[in-house]
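Lab notebook, bench 4. We co-purified these components, and the gel suggests they stay together. Before we commit to crystallization screens, I want a quick structural picture of the whole thing.
Request: model the full complex, all chains together.
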Amino acid sequence: MTHYDVAIVGAGPAGMSSAIEISQAGFTALLLDDQPAPGGQIYRSIENAHTDRLDILGPDYAEGKRLVAEFRSSSTTYIPNATVWNVSRDLTLAYTREGVSHGISADALIVASGAIERPTPMPGWTLPGVMTVGALQILLKAHGLLADAVVLVGSGPLIWLLAAQMIKAGAKPSAIVETLPLSHYFKALPKLRFNRPAFSYLKKGLLMMRSVKAAGVPVFLGAQGVAIEGSSRAEAVSFEIRGRMHRLPAETVALHQGIVPNQQITRLLHCDHRWSESQRSFLPVSDCFGETSVANLYIAGDGAGIGGAKVAAMQGRLAALRILEKASAVQNTATSELLAEIEKEISIRPFLEELYLPSAEIRDPKENTIVCRCEEITAGEVRASLASGVPGPNQIKSLLRTGMGPCQGRFCGLALSEIAAQYLGKTPASVGYYRIRAPLKPLRLTELANMGEAEVPQAPVKQELQK
Amino acid sequence: MLRRIAGRISPDIVFEFDGRPIHAAPGDTVASALLAAGETIFRSTPSSGKPRGPFCMMGVCFECLVEIDGVTDRQACLTPARDKMQVRKQRGFDATASS
Ligand SMILES: Cc1cc2nc3c(=O)[nH]c(=O)nc-3n(C[C@H](O)[C@@H](O)[C@H](O)COP(=O)(O)OP(=O)(O)OC[C@H]3O[C@@H](n4cnc5c(N)ncnc54)[C@H](O)[C@@H]3O)c2cc1C
Ligand code: FES
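Here is the predicted assembly.
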């Protein structure tokens, strides 16, 4: 088993920044990522993007070029297309790549696995043609594919960003259906802080919204009772605004209700987690440097709590510097500067969190709405099991098989905790979350059989980097 | 329907989807090439047999599972499209995740 000083999971801004810092200090760093190229969600496929695509995707995306180039020129061992499926508390780790499993060990591990989109259970959300807003953005960023006749549904900055990017690319969405109760705007305003980073985020947001409105995209605010209609694929979106019904035909429906930390690895390791009322999600507990309740296991970036790409990069550096500090027993002044900078950068979050708090309808879906997509279990079935005395997510899992399909609860876990909490009149913190076990993704027996024989293919991987 | 605003389909990457030839562009995954070719249904569910297609495109939802060259449960959104692949719609799941 190959050993590294530091292993990192995730090649987004957080993971790349960690790797740069570790390798610059002369330590060995391994970075594993399940995508074919570095960049993570925000900078996906940035190395292949030429001027026209950079123009469509905007300056925040283009900024990633420098970081990715710096990462590529570092001495990090970078392994793309590698999905981490197991991590143990002794910091050994298993990943699969092209059907073969490999194991490595490390003295410290930085989990920089980012965020995923919040589950958005609503009638019709399993129909083909319904995707997440992030999925449409990935098709645009990574594959230069643009959808026509799209209705964007939900709430959050990513909806406006995608709409603005689509308009620049030459296909304006047919409509935006925002599910925010209008009261959120009034509640959020007092949380606005006026400093330079907050002002710049706000300005960007307002400019995006203006460009969408200027392009003539119909925007429906305060939509309730959203349902996607269709027999074998999405055909229309229906909803209600102040008692009036609307129905918009759509070939593609893109859903979004904000993003939440991807908790798979920290849950697998039984790290402590806490419930964040303002982010309405569980967050791994860590100290200010990102060290979790498991020694030498760090969390950085949106996986630690949503802070955005700039904060992710700084947290990645911070965790790395902390590891180096501990290894050399020499304090680094850069850490306190980073902490102060992160503090300033996140000052917009309370406003955004209040504004984009997911609506009650999403947190407590209607009876026959599917909650667990893999096993096709409805909110009604979940409530019926609670009514019969089943106490929480793990027992519901054994009874109904929710969270036991291949996605392992990634797209139902949070929804289930919310439904159970609501039904039992408890907090999500007290009902808890699914226990997560390895493998983190379905594995074939042949993949496991190869485990241990094959070492990390150092030379071939390095060659691949040169291409 | 999706259209390409960048990248071109290449004569060197043609795979079959239930017998239909699908032309892919360099950098395509199986999922992006299929979506670009107008295919939205990738599998059917194990219990009710309902049609499903890609949802997240980032490897987390497992809605894009297909059979590739005889191997089931492959995530089409994470699998690079290659010439002469034999891709088939999948019914249900095969390998199971942890319990
Ligand atoms: C779909 C989506 C689109 C987004 N688009 C934008 C945007 O356009 N602009 C913006 O400002 N913010 C965007 N965000 C927010 C985003 O979270 C950024 O803030 C930023 O990318 C966070 O950086 P990160 O390094 O924490 O994680 P990420 O950039 O998310 O990187 C994490 C990486 O880890 C990989 N990974 C996860 N689990 C494993 C595993 N088990 N094995 C191997 N690899 C794994 C992921 O595939 C990913 O490549 C988006 C978020 C999502 C979910
Ligand atoms: S589309 Fe979600 S895993 Fe492939």
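Chain B has a mean pLDDT of 91. Worth comparing against the SEC data before the next meeting. Chain B touches chain A through 47 residues (CB under 8 Å).
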